[in-house]
Write the structure tokens for this entry.
Amino acid sequence: MLRVVYSVSLLLAFTFAAVPARASDSDTYRQLDLLMDVFERIRAEYVEEVGDKEMIEAAINGMLSSLDPHSSYMGPETFKQMQLQTRGQYGGLGIEVTMENGVVKVISPIDETPAARAGVSGGDYITHIDGEQIMGLTLSEAVEKMRGPVNTDITITIVREGVDQPFELVLTRAIIPIKTVRHRVERNTIGYVRISNFNEQTARGVKTAIRDLKAELGDDLSGIVLDLRDNPGGLLDQAIDVSDVFLDRGEIVSTRGRREKDTQRWNAASGDMINGLPIIVLINAYSASASEIVAGAIQDHRRGILIGAQSFGKGTVQTIIPLGANSAMRLTTARYYTPSSRSIQEEGIEPDIEVSLPRARSSSSGPRRERDLRGHLVNGSEADRPEEQDEIAEDAESIEAPTDEEGNPIDYQLNYALDLLEGLNLFSKKQAAVVVE
């Protein structure tokens, strides 16, 4: 007990040395005394013996998780897995998740992973892991349960909108190589680039994809479809670098924290890898964070056209702060703002052309976004949207996607983007012909 009190005392000494004294400091000390009283009472009288380490970690995690849905404590295993994931591979199922109403909510499965192959979808709720209820666990604890030795099976119970009963899926854990960028040629002249996540390899992957498309198509390359649908985000520096691939100048994004001096801005370097060719960006309700930065920058600079649905609206910066050698905390430290000073938080990015996809008949509500998460931070924007953005939103076109003969939904958002690019290309050729004549 002496060691615990000594550690807390050192922490208090450091904290109050770094922060100017305030009138409320005495109240803070009283509350910390209350915390220690509760700690001692549990330690002495709880029906079963509880380890000091577990109680302290639970107190830290409770403090962080009460702030917003994205702040959390990471123990040694979670911290290690997070480091592996951002570097480009980790062991697990291959899903990006958050916690909502006590259960795990899937933001999106990662392409070509056990979760994606098993049919896990964005918006699914995972309620049980191997028959054990998730309710009562923290997000970090639930994630740790989903991870484990490679080639071992795990059973997850899923609740899905539009499906009457929960159902189970059996997945086999695997090393997840996160290949975040894929590309192909569409309709002979259009480059399609999909980004499924933003890790340390993403910007390099996008540049490689553009070079490959240019090498394959040469002067026939007529435009790019950049697919950010179901992309939960990732590293800020990668979002900046990807935006810079398509922008020749100007601000990409800014972050604003609690203090004015914490404001940071990032600008594009000279040079556009596709030399001004048209870009169409696909977004949907599960495009979040880093993908919203890219979409917002391209939209504000009028560099491309956004098609799809309003994005998720996660516009906050999480800083990973190490706590000793093996653990860390993920703390929300700032908000993202697009070049025109729009706050992404809670609002998301509105597409220039709204193209809706079919919704299950029994589903009475649309996809859930950041603003639907309990404890989310409010927008906090001090600047109104520019006039042109309001005009775009008012003129947004709503199109209901059809299905094929078997009743399966068609990727109408992609087809719409390809049709639009072909139209733009045809128009450019006609304009060029008029100039020559």
Notes: The radius of gyration is 24 Å. The chain has three domains: 27-66, 89-177, 181-431.
